[in-house]
Design goal:
Layout: H1 57-64, H2 66-70, H3 74-85, H4 91-114, H5 118-133, H6 137-140, H7 153-159, H8 164-176, E1 181-187, E2 190-196, E3 202-205, H9 219-232, H10 240-244, E4 247-249, H11 251-257, H12 271-284, H13 289-308, H14 312-329, H15 337-356, H16 360-373, H17 381-402, H18 405-416, H19 422-442, H20 446-459, H21 463-483, H22 490-498, H23 504-527, H24 531-542, H25 548-571, H26 575-589, H27 593-605
Antiparallel strand pairs: 1-2, 1-4, 2-3
Helix pairs in contact: 1-3, 3-8, 3-11, 4-5, 5-8, 12-13, 13-14, 13-15, 14-15, 15-16, 15-17, 16-17, 16-18, 17-19, 18-19, 19-20, 20-21, 21-23, 22-23, 23-24, 24-25, 25-26, 26-27
């Protein structure tokens, strides 16, 4: 009877959410659904932050220092950049790479301090960065170190390979050591750096080419040179209009956006590592709706994974850990149907998790919120409703197992006051009364069972629901009237059956059973050859509104009993009594050949 909660796979699956800040053409985007790998959740949720995936001490410290990164502190920006790479998770590697940065800063500081203007400081920094980190080959051929998919900051320290994203991040971090006012510039398939000068002018820096400092992105560049410039770097061509609509972001935002880039593709990074980065992206960039959607999607996918192993304990731990953040989303972006739909999906998982862990009161309150916020135009509307029904039914069945039906009804009571979820209340209350009735039926508490069944039928909204309850009632009445499991006297049985007279769904059936009861009594008297009693109880059966075919059988039994009764008197030579019995039967129920023959014999004897 219980429904199975069906997965609602969000349209925001991790692959389709890839932002691809780096130099990617649309053809390279992988639309394949990711294989959700198994991972050990024993170390998940262990940090002091409202964060589910495992965090190393280095990663937790980076997240705790995020305000410093947002204020432009270069060391915390560097740590954030390594975090975004996904493959540097330990403090020792971070310290190793940071030491290289600090040595570089110490080495070039005298030269940069000689420069009076920020524009010259930025130029010296650019040349020194390329010489040190991209090697001399950068000046021989700036495409030698360029790697289309190399969006990890960490990889620059390992192989000196870079693309527009990783090289822009490196320059921005280095520039912050000298308090240069730098920004990331994001285009549909490309990234570069903007240096803001004190006089209000800006310097644009293409970090992947020798002539990239103070690079001019004018209309002529996009119309005359774009094809070769972009195709040499495997970048999808950009128009001048797209450039004019470019997105200019703070250093920390560029680093955070890189948590969802080429290196996090499903073919390059594990499900767990990718999910950790997307969760971190949403954790840091709290005001960005897209980042919040990514974070919600990681929890949706995690629920799907944990459900496959029925690990509802871990699922509850996850929701408990991130609940403060989840609650903060409720009043935000309420006018955005897309975002609210995704939030409803996650809260549905939460309600299911609470039910599976026996936290039914909390699950009910979640259900109320979900239905109140569920948009009828949502493509998964019907599936969500079915899942909520399954959750409610799960709660009902938990209390059916514990036989605590009163508690179950009390839990469902809040739903009754909300019109949008009233149908869920009606369905759940019907189930509770139905299960309660069956439990009482097993205990042979017939009248109590009957009362619960009546309440269930009043709440039944479909013919299938009501017919099932009626069938249960009929089975109960049959056991009561025919099998007589309680070993009651016939009068007691009739008394109990009369309690059902006013109940329309079983009224006709009860009438037939009462007739069967009277016939059963008559049958018992037949065995005792108490023919008068046989006639009395058969006549009681005939007094009921029963089908004609049943009446014919009963009349035949009355004829037989009356004949045997009269014959008994005849054999005792009580001819007057015999004649009285026969004539009385003929008057009520008609004559038979046996009666005619017996009357002739009586006449002969009484001449």
């Amino acid at each position: 009877m219980k429904q199975i909660l069906r997965e609602v796979r969000c349209s925001f699956l991790l692959t389709t959410l890839m932002l691809f800040l780096g130099c990617l053409t649309p053809k390279t985007i992988n639309k394949q659904e990711p294989v959700i790998q198994k991972s050990d959740t024993a170390t998940f949720g262990a940090s002091t932050l409202h964060f589910w995936h495992e965090l190393t001490p280095f990663e937790e410290k980076t997240l705790k220092n995020i305000d410093q990164a947002k204020n432009g502190d270069p060391k915390t920006l560097f740590a954030l950049g390594l975090f975004a790479s996904g493959n540097v998770r330990d403090s020792s590697t971070h310290a190793k790479y940071l030491n290289q940065i600090l040595q570089f800063i110490e080495k070039i500081s005298p030269e940069i301090e000689k420069q009076q203007k920020p524009i010259e400081k930025g130029r010296v920094l650019f040349d020194s960065m390329c010489t040190t980190f991209f090697k001399r080959r950068f000046f021989d051929n700036d495409l030698k170190g360029y790697s289309f998919n190399q969006s990890q900051l960490s990889e620059i320290f390992r192989s000196a390979k870079y693309n527009c994203v990783s090289s822009s991040m490196l320059y921005i971090i280095l520039a912050r050591f000298f308090n240069l006012d730098v920004r990331g510039v994001i285009l549909p398939s490309h990234v570069f750096v903007q240096l803001n000068l004190p006089n209000g002018n800006v310097i644009e820096i293409e970090t992947t080419i020798r002539s990239g400092y103070n690079f001019v992105h004018d209309k002529a560049f996009f119309t005359t040179k774009k094809k070769k410039w972009f195709t040499d770097r495997m970048i999808s061509p950009i128009t001048y209009e797209q450039y004019k609509n470019r997105k200019i972001v703070a250093p920390w935002k560029l680093l955070v956006y890189n948590m969802n880039n080429q290196h996090t593709d499903i073919k390059r990074m594990s499900y767990t590592d990718r999910s950790r980065l997307l969760e971190a992206m949403g954790y840091i960039h709290t005001e960005d709706k897209y980042s919040q959607e990514l974070r919600l999607t990681t929890y949706n996918n995690e629920c799907i994974r944990l459900k496959k192993t029925k690990n509802y304990t871990a699922m509850l731990a996850m929701f408990t850990k991130v609940e403060p953040w989840l609650k903060s989303l409720h009043p935000r972006w309420q006018e955005d149907d897309h975002f609210r739909d995704l939030l409803v999906l996650i809260e549905q998982w939460y309600a299911n998790t609470l039910e599976k862990n026996g936290k039914n009161g909390q699950a009910i309150m979640k259900i109320i919120w979900i239905v109140e916020n569920l948009r009828e135009g949502f493509s998964s509307y019907e599936m969500i409703i079915n899942n909520l029904k399954a959750i409610v039914q799960g709660i009902v069945e938990q209390h059916d197992q514990s036989k605590d039906y009163s508690r179950a009804l009390a839990l469902m009571a809040p739903i009754k006051d909300y019109p949008k979820v009233n149908a869920l209340y009606t369905n759940s209350a019907r189930l509770i009364h139905e299960y309660y009735s069956l439990d009482l039926l097993k205990k042979q508490q017939w009248l109590l069972s009957f009362n619960q069944s009546k309440k269930a039928i009043k709440l039944a909204k479909t013919s299938s629901d009501s017919s099932r309850i009626v069938q249960n009632l009929k089975a109960m009445l049959y056991d009561l009237a025919i099998t007589n499991k309680l070993k009651l006297t016939h009068d007691s049985l009739i008394f109990l059956l009369e309690k059902f007279d006013d109940f329309e769904p079983t009224k006709d059936y009860t009438t037939l059973l009462k007739a069967d009861c009277f016939q059963a009594v008559a049958s018992d008297f037949w065995k005792l050859e108490k023919w008068g009693d046989v006639v009395i109880y058969n006549e009681k059966a005939l007094a009921l509104p029963i089908p004609d075919e049943k009446k014919a059988v009963i009349i035949e039994n009355i004829h037989g009993a009356s004949y045997n009764w009269a014959l008994g008197h005849f054999n005792k030579k009580e001819y007057a009594k015999a004649k009285e019995v026969v004539e009385g039967c003929i008057k009520k129920w008609g004559s038979t050949k046996k009666f005619d023959k017996l009357l002739k014999q009586i006449e002969i004897k009484t001449r």
